[in-house]
Automatic annotation (TrEMBL):
SUPFAM superfamilies: FAD-linked reductases, C-terminal domain (SSF54373), FAD/NAD(P)-binding domain (SSF51905). This is Oxidoreductase. One of its GO terms (cellular component) is cytoplasm. Its cofactor is FAD. The keyword Ligase does not apply. One of its GO terms (molecular function) is oxidoreductase activity. It comes from Philodulcilactobacillus myokoensis. Belongs to the DadA oxidoreductase family.
Amino acid sequence: MKKIAIIGQGIIGSTTAYYLYKMFSSNIKITIFDKRRGQATKAAAGIISPWVSKRRNQQWYHLARRGADLIPKLARETHMPTDVYNQCGTIITRDTKKKLSELYQLGQKRMQEAPAMKSIQYLSSSDVKNMLPFLSKTLPGIIIKGGGKIDGAKFSNHLLKQIPEQIVNLKCGEATLVSDQQIKFQNHIEKFDNIIVAAGAWTKKTLQHINVLADIRAQKGQLIELSIHNQFKKDMPVLMPEGEYDVLPFSNGKIIIGATHEDDKTFDLKPTNNAKQKLLNSAKKIINGLDGSNVMKTKVGTRAYSSDYGPFFGIIPGHDHLLMGGALGSSGLTTGPIIGKFLAKQILSDQKLDFNYYEKPINKYFK
């Protein structure tokens, strides 16, 4: 019987737990420690559509592509409801034919290695309006049929519900690392075969207890939920409008706009009027008739980044029983699930696995 601890019940922690259960079946006991405050996953609703990103970090793209391929498979395998994950398509708009053509060509090229994209096609501004009738201003764009939207908190909870209660134990509160294999929780020290640190922006603080310094910084993110009760269709695509915040329509007139990137606020979890107004003003440019009364709620979370914006994961150098995954940034809902699967595979393996195709050498992120 293998005893595994996971610190953090976010996108990485929950997916790792799910795959550990799938790989080990009944020969494993998983304990998840989560303090339930400020987590990026719980505040996040996001778009799964990395295929036309122009980020230069190719390892990140390989990781995101694998993540975008995995999520719909995971949804089918676990009978995920569409309010958790919905492969509804992604519309991306541009203001010139040249920009749109470049985007389309990049998508066509990448589709050869990414069947999860399904298809890519041009849309006129009237096509966009037909698909998203609540918009008052539209630009031409492309639609990637394999794109989708995901609710981070519901995704994590859904995966954990797939694991029998006798296999997984969730402990709410702060866990402190004592060593590579020991955790102190509520004045009790427990030993594990392996510990996985998936604590998001709190990973740096978590590892400092055993004198491991990780290259992770925090960033505040806010999004708003709007309510508009007209012109809604079922399963509308998500929209990535040029120069504005993403637009995610859900059922019953709910639209999410976001999210902000606030480097100076880090662990501050208070919603701000400034961010709310910034997000609302962005939405007003494409949706007529909006004002503050349409804002139902503001969600706040803390993301984690590394200094080069690349995620990293695996066995922590010099600590054979201690693994981590983090620094996912704003693409965490795409990359988190595949990282969770990779970490579960690493625990299953007797050898150290090579993830260099998906991340820069992990040593560079530790001192």
